Amino acid sequence: MTSPDTSSAGSHSPLYMKLLAETAKIGWSELERFFARGLLLRVARDLDLVSVAVAVANDDTTQVAQWLSAGLIERVQAETAADFAARDPDLWAVVVSPWVCVQERG
């Protein structure tokens, strides 16, 4: 199992470090209630989950809009939720209230 990349942790902001410490592996069953409320954001594998969480926390609308338009982040859709429920993949998540950012690993 691979945890979020901490190799360059020294160059990150205090918020990044705080969110990194709050990032954890989680099962789909624990995320379903956030999906049901429309508060679950899927982050593409090629993005840094914590960097996305920082942008959301900082209300960086320009960066978030770019990721949204590129399909790199999105609200979890019903098809994705059904896939996660069926496969129960390795998921990592971090809360940036009210959002929960989730990323499939592996």
What features would you describe in this structure?
The protein has 106 residues and is an alpha+beta fold. The chain has one domain (13-105). The chain is built from 5 helices and 5 strands; from the N terminus they run αβαβααβαββ. The chain has helices at residues 14-22, 28-36, 49-57, 61-69, 78-87; strands at 24-26, 40-43, 73-75, 90-96, 99-105. The chain has a 5-stranded mixed beta sheet with strand order 1-4-5-2-3. Helix 1 (14-22) crosses helix 3 (49-57).
Top keywords for this entry?
alpha+beta; disordered N terminus; 5-stranded mixed β-sheet; 5 helices
Which structural class do the helices and strands define?
alpha+beta
What is the makeup of the main sheet?
Answer: 5 strands, mixed
Instruction: Give the helix level as a range of percent.
Output: 40-55%
Shape: globular
Low-confidence stretches: 1-9
The SSE string, one letter per element, is HEHEHHEHEE
What's the SSE blueprint?
Layout: H1 14-22, E1 24-26, H2 28-36, E2 40-43, H3 49-57, H4 61-69, E3 73-75, H5 78-87, E4 90-96, E5 99-105
Parallel strand pairs: 2-5
Antiparallel strand pairs: 1-4, 2-3, 4-5
